[in-house]
């Protein structure tokens, strides 16, 4: 297998190149618009609100509007298992990674490493590169992320016991509701009342909740909203980057060490462990499922994790520097990870 040829083929694949350039160009557009004050200081927050309350829930829900088969069901369930297991593994692994730090600094760096911006940064990129299948897998994988973020993450950063408001946040935010609604329809579509629909001149039966087939008038506006998720997220990321001093962040050695672990080491841990589990048949997954996990885990600092650190006055300046530097490295490293994933695909290690 000629790795050079694989890299060449990957770097000349217009779908992959377009996905990479789209994210980079639009992030720079957001940066430029904020620097020129075309977007004001509140713009990134407003855009984030639209993305988190409308665009990403629509993206998560519409991704489940597809037929179910044995393979996709198995992949989804395996990703659900891994999405829970990996956070337990990272809780253990980050301890020696940050052993040289003590107290609050160690706690902050560990939590920021465990929880990346999977929803805001990862899913939009996955949607562009791997389509609805990738988004569906990402949404299932993210269930474990939200459980641990609003439980372990909160407890570790606050020093308090789990509060009722966090349980409410965990299960009642729009993205989680959309994910579980879509997952229910996808899993139970064979058991729900069926509706006859004309598809390509032939009559087919679909569950009445498969609105992509039974109610296109309802599905289409959700699809338009879903397609807004990526560009709006990238503009918001760019606008946010324009607010923080890169010079200060680059002087912080701890932020560099954190970003290296977050953007490179954490994805490598996932690749190695999933290769072993796949080879032994313990947890077989497809290439798209692997790619989904790697991109989700190669994301920069999670907004909620950073908010915890700032709210509870735990290394707020370090957190801001880590967030900025990891976001820049995340943008730069994403093309690298997509190329690595294409190399792995060509070796046919995963189905």
Radius of gyration of CA atoms, rounded to a whole number:
20 Å
Give the class-level CATH name.
Mainly Alpha
Number of strands: 2
CATH topology-level name: Na+/H+ antiporter like fold
Low-confidence stretches: none
Largest sheet: 2 strands, antiparallel
The appropriate CATH architecture is: Up-down Bundle
Q: What gross morphology would you assign? A: globular
Q: Cα distance, first to last residue?
A: 18 Å
Judged by helices, strands and strand pairing, the structural class is mainly alpha
As laid out across the biggest beta sheet, the strand order is 1-2
Count of helical stretches:
15
Mean pLDDT: 87
Strand content: under 5%
SSE series: HHHHHHHHEEHHHHHHH
Helix content: over 70%
List the domain count as a whole number. 1
Which terms would index this structure?
Mem_transp_PIN-like, membrane, two-stranded antiparallel sheet, mainly alpha, 77% helix, 351 residues, single chain, transmembrane, Na+/solute_symporter_sf, Na+/H+ antiporter like fold
Overall description:
The protein has 351 residues and is mainly alpha-helical. It has one domain: Na+/H+ antiporter like fold (Up-down Bundle), CATH 1.20.1530. It is built from 15 helices and 2 strands. The chain has helices spanning 3-11, 14-35, 43-63, 70-97, 103-114, 118-158, 164-172, 174-188, 211-214, 216-241, 246-250, 253-280, 287-297, 303-311, 316-346; strands at 194-199, 202-207. It starts with a helix and ends in a 5-residue tail after the last helix. The model has no long low-confidence stretch (mean pLDDT 87). One of its GO terms (cellular component) is plasma membrane.
């Amino acid at each position: 297998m000629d790795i050079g040829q694989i890299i060449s083929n990957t770097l000349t694949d217009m779908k992959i190149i377009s996905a990479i350039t789209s994210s980079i160009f639009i992030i720079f557009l957001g940066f430029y618009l904020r620097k020129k004050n075309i977007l004001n200081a509140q713009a990134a927050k407003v855009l984030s609100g639209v993305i988190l309350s409308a665009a990403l829930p629509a993206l998560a829900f519409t991704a489940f509007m597809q037929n179910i088969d044995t393979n996709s069901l198995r992949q989804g369930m395996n990703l659900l298992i891994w999405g829970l297991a990996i956070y337990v593994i990272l809780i253990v692994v980050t301890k020696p990674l940050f052993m040289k730090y003590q107290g609050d600094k160690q706690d902050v760096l560990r939590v920021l490493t465990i929880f990346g911006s999977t929803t805001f940064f990862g899913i939009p990129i996955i949607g562009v590169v791997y389509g609805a299948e990738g988004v569906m897998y990402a949404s299932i994988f993210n269930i474990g992320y939200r459980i641990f973020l609003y439980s372990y993450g909160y407890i570790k950063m606050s020093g308090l016991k789990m509060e009722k408001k966090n349980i409410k946040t965990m299960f009642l935010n729009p993205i989680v509701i959309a994910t579980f609604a879509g997952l229910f329809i996808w899993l139970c579509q064979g058991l729900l009342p069926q509706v006859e629909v004309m598809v390509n001149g032939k009559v087919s039966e679909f569950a009445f909740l498969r609105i992509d087939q039974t109610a296109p008038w309802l599905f289409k506006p959700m699809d338009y909203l879903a397609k807004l998720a990526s560009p709006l997220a990238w503009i918001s990321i760019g606008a946010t980057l324009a607010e923080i001093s890169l010079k200060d962040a680059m002087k912080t050695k701890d932020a560099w060490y954190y970003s290296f672990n977050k953007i490179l080491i954490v994805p490598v841990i996932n690749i190695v462990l999933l290769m072993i589990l796949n080879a032994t048949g313990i947890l077989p997954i497809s290439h798209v499922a692997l790619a989904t996990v790697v991109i989700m885990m190669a994301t920069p600092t999670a907004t909620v994790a950073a908010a915890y650190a700032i709210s509870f006055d735990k290394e707020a300046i370090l957190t801001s520097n880590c967030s900025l530097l990891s976001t820049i490295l995340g943008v730069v490293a994403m093309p690298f990870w997509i190329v690595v994933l294409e190399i792995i695909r060509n070796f046919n290690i995963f189905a």
